[in-house]
Amino acid sequence: MCSNSFILADYFKENFPIKQMRHGMYDEEDIYYQIPKLVFRFEENADQKNYVELKKCIESFKGNLEWTLFQSFIAKKVKNYVIAPKKIFEMQKQLFEQNRRSTEKDYFTEEEYRFLCEKGIEDIPDLTKHIKSVFKFQNEN
Question: How far apart, in Å, are the Cα atoms of 56 and each of 14, 16, 107?
């Protein structure tokens, strides 16, 4: 059985044309090290509608937290995509627009940070099941 931190990454590696991915959504030894997220990008020749369909799927998930898919704001030649709680997107967007940098731990209150870590981790198995069910249905049509 694969660990909670890796189940979504493992599913992606088996079912999507992954070019690059940071494996594992959080540190299982220290669940408060970072808020859970999956950072990846598809192969260059992959259909861009994969991102659009995946974003719709993720945003339709009903869990403890609202989740989203967004393109990283970090300026690089090739930008990765991030599946994360919507609060992470809002934080990164605000910091980018204000040309500021901050860690998640500094940006959120300790209570909110711990909540996002705990509830995000709780959501991972059901988020993975949701993505599997939506993409299984789409592949059957």
Answer: 20, 16, 27
Q: Give the pair of three-digit tokens for residue 94.
A: 């605000």
Contact status, residue 59 vs residue 85, Cβ threshold 8 Å: no
Spatial distance between the Cα atoms of 52 and 59, rounded to a whole number of angstroms = 11
| pLDDT exceeds 70 at position 50 | yes
Hey, what are 47's tokens? 């259909």
State both tokens at 26. Answer: 């959080």
Q: Which residues of 56-69 are buried (b: 16+ CB within 10 A; e: fewer)?
A: ebbeebebbbebbb
Q: In whole angstroms, what separates CA 45 from the centre of its chain? A: 22
pTM: 0.92
Integer-rounded Cα Rg, in Å, for the chain is 15
CA gap 64, 79 in Å, rounded: 28
CA 35 from centroid of its chain's CA atoms = 10
